[in-house]
């Protein structure tokens, strides 16, 4: 293969006065911001949905199940387009205009990616709650807790510990799925990757660097949640050697 390697191109100045390595660092920052924001939103919404789907109220179960079925069966990129192009048109004119002209792209990216991931986390939370014995719920009620207090103080803390390995995988997927947000204007890592290739044609160098950065982000989240898992493990519920993958 007659390919000319040139690692020094990262130091070359671009049309906007920055250097190519600064484009990469900027994209890395936006990728991290979108991923962490979406993960926080997904954990909140997913936990609420997981609880709703394990209650004895059929209306709440129906709402939770409908959300999961809908959001898990529409591709992420289509959902982002819906939030970016369609939803503003369905809102009152003044609000829709504000969303299209004033709302930062990062907000749309976080909402789209977060609500998509929430459907997957809801499945994990539901499974964790259902794996617990009914005796824990009954013990909480016997102590005078309300139904919702048993979730908050008894069932959810245990459920999170059980499904933490699965949540680790979802957290890693958020960083990888964030690459799709370039489609709605986010200048994240994948966007900068494509832009640099178009301007320099140094495909191999930039591909290796961006790949390494994505691996580093996902691996860092894996190790962080693995540490949390080891600190919060409940003997007898999670195997001693099990970790996040």
Describe the structure.
This protein has 245 residues and is mainly alpha-helical. The chain has one domain: MetI-like (MetI-like fold). 73% of the residues lie in helices and 0% in strands. The protein has helices at residues 20-52, 58-72, 76-90, 93-101, 105-130, 134-142, 147-177, 189-200, 203-232. The chain is globular, with a radius of gyration of 22 Å. Mean pLDDT is 89; it is low at 239-245.
Can you give the mean pLDDT?
89
Query: CATH superfamily, please?
Result: MetI-like
Q: Any idea of the CATH class?
A: Mainly Alpha
- Radius of gyration, Cα only, in angstroms? 22 Å
* Sequence of secondary-structure elements: HHHHHHHHH
Biggest sheet architecture:
none
Structural classification: mainly alpha
β-strand amount: under 5%
> Using DSSP, what is the number of strands?
0
**Integer count of domains:** 1
Q: Runs with pLDDT <50, length 5+? A: 239-245
Tell the overall outline. Answer: globular
CATH architecture: Orthogonal Bundle
């Amino acid at each position: 293969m007659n390919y000319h390697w040139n690692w020094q191109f990262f130091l070359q100045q671009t049309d906007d006065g920055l250097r190519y390595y600064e484009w990469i660092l900027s994209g890395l920052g936006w990728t991290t911001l979108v991923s962490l924001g979406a993960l926080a939103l997904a954990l909140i919404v997913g936990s609420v949905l997981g609880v709703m789907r394990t209650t004895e109220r059929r209306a709440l179960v129906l709402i939770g199940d409908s959300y999961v079925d809908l959001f898990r069966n529409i591709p992420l990129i289509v959902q982002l387009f819906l939030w970016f192009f369609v939803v503003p048109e369905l809102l009152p004119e003044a609000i829709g205009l504000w969303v299209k002209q004033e709302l930062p792209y990062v907000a749309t990216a976080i909402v789209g990616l977060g609500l998509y991931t929430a459907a997957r986390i809801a499945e994990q939370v539901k499974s964790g709650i259902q794996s617990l014995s009914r005796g824990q719920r009954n013990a909480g009620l016997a102590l005078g807790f309300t139904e919702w207090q048993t979730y908050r103080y008894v069932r959810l803390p245990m459920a999170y510990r059980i499904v933490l390995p699965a949540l680790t995988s979802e957290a890693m997927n958020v960083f990888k799925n964030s690459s799709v947000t370039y489609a709605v204007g986010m200048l994240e890592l994948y966007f900068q990757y494509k832009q640099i290739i178009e301007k320099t044609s140094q495909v191999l160098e930039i591909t290796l660097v961006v790949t390494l950065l994505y691996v580093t982000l996902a691996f860092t989240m894996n190790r962080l949640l693995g540490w949390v898992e080891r600190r919060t493990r409940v003997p007898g519920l999670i195997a001693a050697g099990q970790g996040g993958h």
